[in-house]
């Protein structure tokens, strides 16, 4: 059974600080997705990482993928309050005929 | 706006009842996925349809069923509802298998 583990599950940080969210998964997969969810809202696609060594950046967020270590990271640089949300990583178990397996999510609070 | 439309947004009903949730995928998307989000279980994949055919099943209960119609919209039917079925139900769509999934705003189901 595919397992996706995120840590930390809860993170409170101050504006201006840097931090990293980690996502480990238990199967061989070269596709990993990061989503953002605001309270009571839908999931917004942030990044799609399609190969080993992939790195993508959007504003203060940067995501990377190491398929050999089965690890993805989401790095936050100089955090701002607007980045407060829950962040999920998700992986396909393979073969295409399957849905995404999500981690439990990292609830991020950025305090002014 | 993801382009995925879900109706209704909220649904309140009683135990033992049956409800139908509806999803219209983004224009051009052939694949539709259903997910359940609850505090206990997190985000769980339920079922996937591709171009009208069931493609994969996840943690879907036997009391639940779904279908995708020729116009590609999909319905999720939940019957013999229990208190534990209270959750946010998301529909997502994608162009092809393993391409990024775009999520609707969800249907919040409350069982009284």
Describe the structure.
The complex is a heterodimer of chains A (112) and B (112). By secondary structure, chain A is mainly β. Chain A has no helices and eleven strands. Chain A has strands at 4-7, 10-14, 19-25, 32-37, 43-49, 55-58, 61-66, 71-76, 85-92, 100-102, 106-111. In chain A, strands 2, 4, 5, 9, 10 and 11 form a six-stranded mixed beta sheet that branches. The mean pLDDT of chain A is 91. With 112 residues, chain B is mainly beta. In chain B, 0% of the residues lie in helices and 54% in strands. Chain B has no helices and eleven strands. Chain B has strands at residues 5-7, 10-13, 19-24, 31-38, 42-50, 53-57, 64-68, 74-78, 87-94, 102-103, 107-111. In chain B, the strands form two sheets. In chain B, strands 2, 4, 5, 6, 9, 10 and 11 form a seven-stranded mixed beta sheet that branches. Chain B is globular, with a radius of gyration of 13 Å. Classes of the chains: A mainly beta (112), B mainly beta (112). At the A-B interface, strand 5, strand 9 and strand 10 of A face strand 5 and strand 10 of B.
Give me a quick take on this structure:
Chain A contains no helices and 11 strands. With 112 residues, chain A is mostly beta strands. In chain A, strand 9 (85-92) and strand 10 form a beta hairpin.
- What's the number of helices of chain A? 0
Share in β-strands of chain B: over 45%
Rg over CA atoms of chain A = 13 Å
Discrete helix count of chain B: 0
The main pleated sheet of chain B reads as: 7 strands, mixed
Assembly state: heterodimer
One letter per element, helices H and strands E, the order of chain B comes to EEEEEEEEEEE
Name the beta content range of chain A: over 45%
Shape of chain B: globular
Overall pLDDT metric of chain B: 94
Terminal CA distance of chain B reads 31 Å
C-alpha geometry of chain A: globular
> What proportion of the residues of chain A is helical, as a percent range?
under 10%
The greatest interface here is:
A-B, 21 and 25 residues
Rounded Rg of chain B: 13 Å
Order of helices and strands of chain A: EEEEEEEEEEE
Give the helix/strand class of chain A. Answer: mainly beta
Helix content of chain B: under 10%
